[in-house]
Amino acid sequence: MTTAAAAAKPARRTQADRRAQTRSALLAAAARGLSRYGYSNLVLEKVAAEAGYTRGALYHLFASKEDLALAVVEWVRETWYAEVGWRLSDATDPVSTLIAVARGHAVLCRADMARVMMTLRVEFSGQDHPVGRKIDEVGRQLVTDCARLIAAGRRSGAIPPGPPVRVVARAYLGAIDGLVINLAGQAPFDAVLAEHAVRGLLGLPPAPTGGLVSPNSSDGPGCGLTDR
C-alpha cells in the first residue's frame, strides 16, 4: 500500500468509540421514550429497537430501567449546561444572560429536552425514588444558578425589587419550560415568546423592537433545559 493510500484510509474506530456511539444512541432513544410514555410505561426492548440495537446491547451498558433513566437525566443536564448553562456563570449583564438562556432553552428544547424532565418530575413528585431525587438535584442547581443572576440584577438596579429571588428563579424556570412544551413545533415564536415571558416575569420593559417576528424568520443558534 502506498503512503497516499494509507493516509486516505479512514481511521479504524476503537471499541471505546463504538461503545460511546451505542450509549449516545440509546440515551437519545430513551429520552424520547420517557418524554412520550413516562418511566412506568417505558419498554426497554422498544428503546433498544428504536436506537437500532438489541436488548442485550442495552443491558450491557445499563443494568436496569432505573439505571438508564438516571443516565438520561444526567445526559440532559450535561447537554443543557454545555449548550446554554455555561452562560449562567457570567453575572456581568444578568438581564441579557437570563434572556439568552430563555431563548436558547426554547431552541434546544425543540428536541423534547424540556418534556422529558417535566414528565419525570411530575411522575416522581412526592416519591422517594432515585430518579426523583436526581431530578430534584438538577432542579436545585438550576434554581441556585438563576437566583444568583436575579440577585445580581437587583443589586445593580437592572431588575426591579420583587418576590424572593429563589421564588422568582423557580417561576422563571417553570415559565420557560411550560412555554416551550406548549409551543412545540411553533418555531421561531417559541424563542421570541420565551423572551417576552421572561421580561414580564422579571418586571422589565418589552424588548426594544417589540412585536413578533415573521413566520419566515429563524432564531439564531441557541444554548438551550430547565428544571425547578
Report on this model:
The protein has 228 residues and is mainly alpha-helical. Helix 5 (65-83) packs parallel to helix 8 (130-156), helix 7 (113-123) packs across helix 8 and helix 9 (165-182) runs antiparallel to helix 10 (189-202). The chain is 65% helix and 0% strand. It contains ten helices and no strands. It has a domain at 66-202: Tetracycline Repressor, domain 2, CATH 1.10.357.10.
Short note summarizing the structure:
The protein is mainly alpha-helical and 228 residues long.
Largest sheet: none
Secondary structure class reads: mainly alpha
Q: What CATH first level of the domain at 66-202 would be assigned? A: Mainly Alpha
**Span from first to last CA?**
59 Å
- Compressed to H and E, one letter per element, the order equals HHHHHHHHHH
- Radius of gyration from CA coordinates: 20 Å
Question: What is the residue-mean pLDDT, rounded to a whole number?
Answer: 87
* CATH fold topology of the domain at 66-202: Tetracycline Repressor, domain 2
How much helix, percentage-wise, in residues?
55-70%
Named at the architecture level, the CATH assignment of the domain at 66-202 is: Orthogonal Bundle
Keywords:
228 residues; mainly alpha; Tetracycline Repressor, domain 2; 10 helices; disordered C terminus
